[in-house]
Amino acid sequence: MKRPLILAACFALLAGCSGSGHDAAHTGHAGHELAPTTPASASAPAPAPASASGAAPAVGDYNLADVMFLQMAMANHNRGIELVHLADKRPIREDLRNLTAAIRLTQEQELDQMKKWLTEWSQSTDVNPDPNAHAHHGGMPVTDAAALADLAKLPDSEFEKQFIALLTAHQHNAVEFALTEGKDGASAPVKAFADKVVKSRSGQIQLLLKYQQ
Description:
Layout: H1 3-14, H2 22-26, E1 37-40, E2 58-59, E3 62-63, H3 64-85, H4 94-120, E4 140-143, H5 145-153, H6 156-184, H7 188-211
Antiparallel strand pairs: 1-4, 2-3
Helix pairs in contact: 1-4, 3-4, 3-6, 5-6, 6-7
């Protein structure tokens, strides 16, 4: 298959597959150890009292959960773009290279949309340095910068295997907090976006797991 056709197939997958969502993200993880993650936090409006149901209170057409999700997702996307850039000059298989190129372009486009929402709401796009900002949901899972540094030091003979493992874990993290947005968010467009992230990243994980076989 020619490269443009392969890329088109990748873009179709990244745009939001009709797969099995969160279950797909976990299928095949037996024997697969996720790469290191570290808790972080996201910037958000001043905390408001939770409702009786425990959900974040709505502010207009959005709530605190929407803001926190977008900020976490932006941090995740930026780190993911850094990660796939590491493969640019490495001798990885061609279909994997096509997938990483599609991931990078998709996440760049999604970053623009997330920034637009936060700007419209007059919210910061940066993560909150306060380590307690996300204590109620265990912090933000984000691929550790040190893990990327270690990956960059690997010889070509070891790079692809570890790259796939780290990218798989990274996309799994995106699924986890996108699912949280689906439960706690108030903004219909952002919740729809989160659902798209779950399906898209779950499909990517399935492809990446096949590369490990």
